[in-house]
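On clarity, I found the account of how folds are encoded harder to follow than it need be. For illustration, here is how one protein appears when written out as sequence plus structure tokens:

:::
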Amino acid sequence: MIRFKIDIESTELLDRITNIYNFKRDTITGRIALSLSIEKGSVFNEGEDNLPQNGREYTPTSNIFGRLINDIDNFKLYKTIFDQHYNKELSDNEFIKLYKLHLKDGLEIWNKELNNGDITKGDHISYLLKPIKKGLSKRSSNVHIANPKEVESDFFNINSTNKPIELYLGNELNGDPIKIKINDETEYTSRHFGIAGTTGSGKTQLVFDIIYQISKQTNYELNFTFFDFKGTDSKEKLDSFLTATKSNFLDIKHQSGFPFSPLKNYDLSNQNYIESFASDLRTFFKDIRQVQSASLVREIKDYYFDNNSSPSLEDLLESILEKNKGKFDTTTSVIQQLINSGIYDESKSYSIFNQSTYISMPSEVTKEIKQFVTFNLLKFMYDSIKKSGDTTVTNNIKALKHIIIIDEAQNFLQHKNARPVIESMLRELRSMGIIIILIAQETQDFIYKDFNFMSQIQFPICANVKDKSAKRIIPFLGSVNSEVKLNAQLAKLEGGKALINIGEPKLIELKQWWKTKQEENL
């Protein structure tokens, strides 16, 4: 679509009619006026003088033609209608010239009807109902084109495996191996892990080894998504792990963002998604207050109503700025930050469930942006998995669908508004065959006055932490028979070791991926 201006008379009629109907935008009025002119059968000579360009300007982002199929601007659709109306292929310039003439014609037809009717009696509504009814009767004989949202999405068909899985977590100090059958329902009804440990404690190497064991035992049928919040490990550094688990490495960088759209991936006819998006922004960007959040919800609803589609971040930003006459505020500044960071690539999509993925968040962007984007993706996965339903139990073995690993989980658990989502994921998704592994720095990152996450975690693993007091450790691990014995074990806790509580608290040497890699020559 090209940039163009209409005349001042059309601009004034647009504003008058838009105000009478209380439409959200003048572009709605313009599209209706155009249909009134075409429906009447008006035809203009190509040699007719151009209308003066002394009125409102429309740009490629004004949505004067709206968006319908696959969120593509309807410029070509309208031009095709004009080609058929004039029985020839018009150039873009010819189309725009004729468009402006038809726009003015339709506005004048409409305005005349309004002047001849009684608005107080609802004549203006009755006038529009006639062409709407006629249009609906025509549409009833048309072939239905399915909206992409109507097509069964891949999250309804998440792959699962019913293979039994036995994990080797490490050895007791006497050398006895520690093994758990995580999907044997006679032993465990939940498969979630909570792992606490400082940098260098061995917790990440343990998780890598757990994922490798699961991948190998299920013949790579059970996929995983690993959210690396720090983003410090390169693809080259992780090459052996990625190869051994047959997983993809998504290195999120500036102008090479995650192939996902935080709004376009949802059907915003469900307004809960709109409010959820605005709430998440407010959670992680403290400058956005309740008033700005409510305003953002209205702006997204207006866009969806006007365009019958969900906006990209750039669409949303341009739409708000157009209304605000280019003036930035707190909300638009945050949206601009997200766009400038390049952390999303909204032109692409990624099937996250039926393949294994290591997502490395960019180290160079702000903590707030990384928090928002990671949390946004987690909520998308949560909403999608809930639609896929529970998995079956066959011969006491629970079928499993996916593993979600959240590194540096304290970045979400410490946010009061984010905690309920993580809690719901742990509680609701276990019946749906999901394993969630939360990795954090300290045991207290899992325990809050409003909720103790350990109540939903089956396997607590306390690697080397800074605060080794029994007061901190017991709420994380669970009750112990002897606090004296626990303190004796805590005194030996160091890198590569961890306390677990399967049957009773015990100190173990952790299974480590770097050792497995050497032993199996991977």
